Fold:
Amino acid sequence: MAHNASSLGTMRSIRVLSIDGGGIRGIIPARILSALEEASGRPTADLFDIIVGTSIGGIAAMALALPGEDGQPAPAEDIGAFYERHGKIIFPQSALSFPRSREDLRELIARVGMQAAMFGSNPDVGNARYSAAPLEQALEEQFGDARLSDAIRDVIVTSYDVNRGGPKL
Structure:
């Protein structure tokens, strides 16, 4: 649909919150959103029309949009608490740590070099950084049998289907 300048002025704006992934660094947007909720006096779900997330940001998006037992969405501080409770199990330090010695660096270079030889220039293809089991257990605890259709706010969680080779929403 084409819009002219006068029709654009009457269109309602759509407020989109996009929450990045990044493993345990997902606690950063949780803290920022908690401060936003405190300043506004409203839950995040009331401040945005659509909440989008990738990876751990997708988990945060779902937590912000799904109603709890009281029918209200989880406050952002609960997301921070989720990361604090489960972060070390979901994202083990050994997978996050930087090489501390020359030997650690050599091992990392050898591992990445082997992966590059097997999977081309992208060493992440075919190699999960973390085990799925601790994450699945934490998600079961957090969400139970909740469905995307239960969300009180529009939610998009992005992913990539490695078997079919394409993005998924």
